[in-house]
Amino acid sequence: MKKGTLKQILLITDGCSNEGEDPVAMAALAREQGITVNVIGVLDQYDSEGGHGLQEVEGIAQSGGGISQIVQTRQLAQTVQMVTKQAMTQTIKGVINQQLQDILGDGETVEDLPPEKRGKVMEVVDEVGETADLNVCILVDTSASMKNKLPTVREALTDLSLSLSARMGENQFCLFLFPGKRKPVQKVIAWTPQLDSIERVFEKISSHGVTPTGPAIKEAIKSFASIAHKRAFYDGDDEAYDDGPR
Amino acid sequence: MTDPDNLCYAPGTMIVGKWHRNRYQLIRLLGSGAQGTVYLGHSGDAHPVAIKLAKDRSSLISEAHILEQFGRLQGDPLGPSLYDSDDWVTGGSTVGFCVMEYLEGTSLSEVLKKKAFDWSLVYVLQLLKQLAQLHKTGYIFGDLKPENLMLIRPGYSIRCLDFGGATKIGRSVREYTEFYDRGYWGLGSRRAEPSYDLFACAMILIYAAAGRRITRSSEPQNQLKHFIDSQGKLVPYRHFLLSALSSDYTSAEQMRKELVRAMMAVESHERHNSHAAAARYPRPRTKRKSNGWTPAWLAASMIITAYIVFVVIYVM
């Protein structure tokens, strides 16, 4: 199987969007372009919001073809890496199911194979998940109610980077915060293979009341175009890059 | 009792495999975790078996796949033998299950609470032997913790359960538990290599001494060091533990040898203590105490004599 690149948006939020485009529609737009949207809803014991904001969390993940999970703040680190890995497996399985259907005809999926054969398919899924390149654009909600959860979010993201860097494939991360200082969405870290030294990024945040989730997803979709462009440039001609103006 | 959403089924429920058409009856619940639920059951010939049910069949299948591979190996079994792996269609949904050898025993997490620390050392020693064998097959255990280990009744030998976290060496660790994960403590990567399991072994000893999982502070590495220094039981193993925690041991065999050496050193240390205790209560045997000094005096005088002879020869 050809080594491909998996594209994911990881949205970490604690409530409802209240500004800009409909985030569920934006997630569908992402899916159209081969980007999976995963959502993690973060709660702590003081949260009274309950079911209201969380319905949206599920809706975004559903239309984005990804996974949603609602967690207590302290479980965040393990959830972030689990959701990311599960979503990868799901995407790969989706591709394999598609190919199986082309070969075997209607309705045949990995789940319909006898256990022995399924074991072999799962091994391939594992192999692809381990070696595929992964691009994750992380969107962190920094609205007022998220403020005391941000240290944990920061830790969880460092942990995610640690987990994913143990894979054989290449990783690229970028980090957006919303709402930003002047714009609705602020890019704080451009595409990079490792998410370390993100402590300072979170220190400068000023919290606003608005939550422009939709615009944030839209910005994230745009960012994937920039990495595709960059990759093509590197692959095309390495020497041209070296000879370029400094 | 029956709650299909949480994979809870009443005792007596019959399970029929979709593919192999084997029938099993559930007897009672053995335990449940994030990945699935395990029941004690029996097949047609009333032979007790462990039946693991899981909603997410992919993780179950990879576990079954690994158990199957281990089944082909010779020597001591690493885990339970796998008998069957199938799907059960019930009430419109499909539940994956695998049928394994039922190992009768006690979870190590229970045992560690009751037994003295010396026992924990012996268990870890046994565990290291098992791990050495496992690592030779090209896999690491991954999610190594007392809850996943079991003491089998005859002979109190240790066996690994739940191979859902077993990962091929060189890949990224599939499943882990924060306290036993070196990444969580900032002491290494989550890449599957033997030293990943060895780190967890050291943490099992720390867990046994603490009696609980300690939570990480802002300086996790110093925190672990200070904790070891603060626990009398752990101090004799300080060097051993710190080496394992910083991934200095590259094989389970090497770590096992070091642990044996450390344990032997402690034993003689304790005998020394019992001498001191004997000295406090005067008994006729106290005279023996001076015997301990005789070889030392002899050695010292020999060295001095040799030195004098050497000097004399040198001067001449």
From TrEMBL, chain A:
Domain VWFA span(s) in chain numbering: 1-92
Name assigned to this protein: VWA domain-containing protein
Pfam families on file: VWA (PF00092)
Top-level lineage group: Bacteria
InterPro entries documented for this protein: VWF_A, vWFA_dom_sf
Annotated source species: Sporolactobacillus mangiferae
